[in-house]
Amino acid sequence: MHIKELEAAIESILFALGESVELERIAGAVDHDEETVRNVIRNMMARYDEEDRGIHIIEMDGAFQLCTKPDMFEYLIKVAHIPKKHVLTDVLLETLSIVAYKQPITRIEIEKIRGVSCDHAVSKLVEYGLIQEVGRMDAPGRPMMFGTTEEFLRYFNYESLDDLPILNQETIEDFKSEVEAELGFELSKDDSEDDLEELFNQDE
Question: From CA 165, how far away is CA 10, in angstroms rounded?
């Protein structure tokens, strides 16, 4: 199979399925090894981004999807009346961040970290497709555990959860202030970053 024919086959697969397709499935369909197919797709991705086209290919956790470029979205709305991208409030973002960094996590554990009820926030994030049930905890009542979805990766343009930003010192200081407010006393200057991380992870 020549390179142009291979690219056409891959493009047709991604277009027809309309969702992310694992590299293994694509390679099997075009009868080539995964490394070759990955290189071909990434070359296609680079070319789509350079050319004046309304589509591009995104990569997420070893899968690929053919999508409309974000700056074309306004034109789709006029034709298909697609609802605009969900707006995430501060509350939703805070809840989503907790799930992203501490998944799998139960609703009760989220509430212990936030200090307030999170029923509405969790329900909205599930409705938006950004988090989902990923299992149940082996504990009395077998509470649901939540984790992020593939849509979460798409929404924030991440290839995998490894792309999540590393918490910086400023963020850690914010956590420290929140912990101090909850505990009702000031953490000493000798408290290490590890101690603070232990406080933040005390519900694990």
Answer: 32
